[in-house]
Structures are given as structure tokens and as C-alpha cells.
Amino acid sequence: MQIENNQLIDDLLRRMESCKRTVKEFEILPINQLQFKDGERWSALECLEHLNLYGDFYLVEIEKRIITNPRKNISTKFKSGILGNYFATLMEVKDGKITKMKSPKDKNPSNSPLSITTISRFLKQQERLVSLLNQCRSIDLTKTRAAISLTNLIKLRLGDTLRFYCYHIERHVFQAKRALEEQGQMIKALDHRQVGHG
Fold first, then answer.
1. pTM for this entry
2. Which tens digit of pLDDT belongs to each residue from 46-82?
3. DSSP E strands: which ranges in the chain?
4. SS3 category, 94
5. What is the structure's pLDDT at 198?
6. What CA–CA distance (Å, rounded) separates 144 from 96?
């Protein structure tokens, strides 16, 4: 994949704006709805807490790469690496579907005592991410390397790390929204059954 730096940043900013709008809608929902779990699946809050845990790593890593990066002879085009492109596309939501994968233990929020502050923390991280994405416009996204949370043995091109991180956010906001929608359908079905028995 080859793309203009600004085009890539604009695309990621659009995706993050959409995620932020979705999560802002969660703020008005009752806490029991946000905490509701269907079996082993994560609740909406658990999906967001998972993202907060990743944010603690990626926001620091991206900022570090911006600060330590020389702004000389930067290429205005980003060329994705083979491994980076693989990891990024693995995270992407495709046709309303996501590839299932196991979450590392330290990033698994299952059964954590979560509250509305999980949403506030996510939205604060989003503000910081938007600022960092804009700062990345003046960085060589191909030559600059950044670590990923999966392993410290690999460093990806910064553009791929940004794609991986933003697609990962999109993936779990989608999952959180779906958890709430499925819960709504379940409640409707239960109400319908009770009316039928009434």
C-alpha cells in the first residue's frame, strides 16, 4: 500500500471522529446497560477499557517517535511494510465483521469493576490521539519505526503502527456498539414474550 501522508492521516482522523461520536452516545446510557454481558462476550465498557489499556502503551510510543524524529528530508508518501500491512488489515472491520483473536491477559478487562469514568478516559485518550495524528503530518511515516504491543522484537513503520492502532480502536468501538444493539434486541424479545404471555 502506498498513500500520501496527509491522505493517510485524514483517513485515520475521520475514523477516530466516527468512533468518538459513537462513544459519546454511550454517555447517556444507564450504567447497567453499559456493563451488561452476554456470556463470555465483553460488555460495552469492557471493550472501551481494553482500548484504554492499549492507549496507555500506544500514545506514549507514538509521542516518543514524534519527539525523537528528525524532520529533515521527509518523504510525503507512506509505503506500508509487509508485516505492518498484515497486522493493520487483520484489525480492520470488514463488511461488518471482525476477525476473532485472543486478547493478552494484561489487556483483558473481563469482569473488571468498570464505571462511566471508562468512557471519559477513552474520550481523553482520543483527544490526545487526534493531536498526535496531526503532529505526524511532519514525520516520515515510512522511515520512522515504532514498537507494537504484541512483541518488543518487532518495530513497524510508524504509518503502519498508526493504522494498526486506529483500526484496533475502530474494531472494539464497533464491538461495543454491537454489544449494546444485541442487548436491545434481547430486551425487545423478552418484552414481546412477556406481552404474549400476558
1. 0.90
2. 999 999 999 999 999 999 999 998 777 788 899 999 9
3. 2-4, 77-79, 145-148, 151-157
4. strand
5. 46
6. 32
| Residues 150/111/34/185 CA torsion (nearest 10 deg) | 100
pLDDT tier at 192, thresholds 50, 70, 90: very low
DSSP state of 1: -
Dist CA 160 CA 156 (whole Å):
6
Q: Is 141 within 8 Å of 5 (Cβ atoms)?
A: yes
Domain tally for the chain?
1
Q: Which domain holds residue 59?
A: 2-197
Q: What is the pLDDT of residue 188?
A: 53
Grid cell in block for residue 144: 520512522
Which of 64, 89, 98, 122 shows the shortest CA–CA distance to 171? Answer: 98
- The residue that leads in pLDDT, 38 or 118, is 118
CA angle 94, 85, 63 (to 5 degrees): 105
Residue 51 to residue 48: CA distance in whole angstroms: 5
Q: Residue 151 belongs to a domain with what CATH number?
A: 1.20.120.450
CA geometry: angle 56, 118, 39, nearest 5 deg: 105
Residue 8's pLDDT is: 98
